[in-house]
Amino acid sequence: MNITITYEEASFQQDAYEKIITRVCSEAALVYGLGPKAEISILLCHNEYIHALNKQYRHIDRPTDVLSFALNEGEDDGYDGPDTALLGDIIISLEKVAEQAAEYGHSFERELAYLTIHGMLHILGYDHMEPEDKAEMRGEEEFILRRLGYVREGETL
Q1: Is 128 annotated as a binding residue?
Q2: DSSP 8-class letter at 106
Q3: Alpha carbons 33 and 31: distance in angstroms, whole number
Q4: Which residues bind Zn(2+) (predicted)?
Q5: What are the CA-CA distances from residue 49 to residues 46, 124, 145 (Å)?
Q6: Which of 22, 81, 82, 116 is deepest in the core (most CB within 10 A)?
Q7: Closest by CA position to 110, among listed 153, 79, 81, 67
Q8: What's the CA gap between 14 and 21, in Å, rounded?
Q9: Tell me: the pLDDT tens digits for 56-67?
């Protein structure tokens, strides 16, 4: 899987962020059978930037933590298999990562990993609009995070 990580500001660039994102995306590629041609683009940004996107594309006038734009969005089948090349884009607010890590009482790293897999699952066709869909998606998120050791504070593997 090819993973492209870009930054709204060059000062955001950190090897630690890239390592977490790469681990999560690579694990998702393994678990969900994404082929070597699969490509995902991830942008790390400020709240202001993601706020503008959230307003433009979702008509919600506030910042959010993560946005996913699947290339095949709107298609019934979601991910088309290992020969699919361009999967889509994920945008993550680093400010929201920090805010939510503090709010939920876990590390910045765990929250970044969580938002990465959350975005990836949306790209792959998962959603959380209905309670049963939300439960399924949450199970998939926790499955990947546990495989990588990104557990909540006080949780054990």
Answers
A1: yes
A2: S
A3: 6
A4: 118, 122, 128
A5: 5, 24, 27
A6: 116
A7: 153
A8: 11
A9: 999 999 999 999
First to last CA, the chain: 27
Integer angstrom CA distances of residue 97 from 1, 100, 102, 107? 24, 5, 9, 9
What is the Cα–Cα distance from 157 to 142, expressed in whole angstroms? 11
Query: Domain 2-148 classified CATH 3.30.420.180?
Result: no
The residue type at 77: D
**Single-letter amino acid, residue 41:** S
pTM as predicted: 0.91
At residue 35 the predicted structure's pLDDT band, cuts being 50, 70 and 90, is confident
Sign, CA dihedral 24-30-32-35, equals positive
Domain spans of the chain, in order of start: 2-148
* CB proximity list for 88: less than 8 A, separation 6 or greater: 40, 41, 68, 69, 70, 71, 72, 73, 123
